[in-house]
């Protein structure tokens, strides 16, 4: 059994990288990929621990991107792109780019605090940063709003304040989906469309339509197996994979106590059991010259 989609406390999970590796070792997982949001910090910490524990750790990341926007159009919903570096971790250029992404989120957080304060919310940046540290994001602000009694649940925090179309929404510089694909592939990685079931907008009702464009841009894989996918969803994405010659990945999207219903490797209610052949197929794709 393997898990190719997990988060540590270096982004919005609750397990430290070491705890996650130990949990994978306890389950005798044959491979683990840490896919923290916009950072390799969890992978970097986990790498020597995994080596010592005999766990095959694959370098990976989950990038937040959006579709290109034409002037006057609203922002597209966030689209997550997984990147895998099965042969070797990316070099300095890619890591520098990640630092710029993190900087843009930090600048957004400063504006977000100002906007919340202007709405009468008593909140300081430090309160969110105490929870999120290097990768403080909106989920951490949501927890502060809950703990201070402004809302009852994190979902209410998003609905009332933090969602893209809510009162305190602040835009930040985010890569487009096509830039994400290009950064991953030029950084020596493989670009994979994450949990395609979430592409909910009307133009995505047929990811088939989008897939051709993304494949032309360098997309090589699709996450057909995911905790949020029904059996019918998975069948549909396997069909897209066949049609566009994409390799298939899967994972639980484990976030520890931040998503209590989801278990490492087995997902929601034990619905996942992914074979190591997915890793072999990923490696085979990495060995093929990229289309460009
Ligand atoms: P950030 O990268 O800081 O903008 O935060 C993005 C994260 O916030 C996403 O990965 C989701 O976990 C969460 N999020 C964004 N929009 C919503 C929403 N409308 N409802 C619930 N969670 C959301
Ligand atoms: Zn996450
Ligand atoms: Fe995601
Ligand atoms: Fe994820």
Tell me the Rg in angstroms. Answer: 19 Å
Q: Give me the side-by-side strand order of the main sheet.
A: 1-2-3-4-5-6-7
Question: What oligomeric state do these chains adopt?
Answer: single chain
Instruction: Using the alpha-carbon principal axes, give the shape.
Output: globular
Q: Please write the string of helix (H) and strand (E) elements.
A: EHEHEEHHHHHEHEHEEEH
By DSSP (H or I, 4+ residues per run), the number of helices equals 10
Residue share in helix? 40-55%
Q: Which class of secondary structure composition applies to the elements? A: alpha/beta
In percent, how much strand structure appears in the residues?
15-25%
Give a list of the ligands. Answer: adenosine monophosphate, zinc ion, fe (iii) ion
Distance, first to last CA: 33 Å
Count of DSSP E strands?
Answer: 9
Uncertain stretches: none
Average the pLDDT over all residues and give the rounded result.
Answer: 93
* Major sheet size, sense and barrel closure: 7 strands, mixed
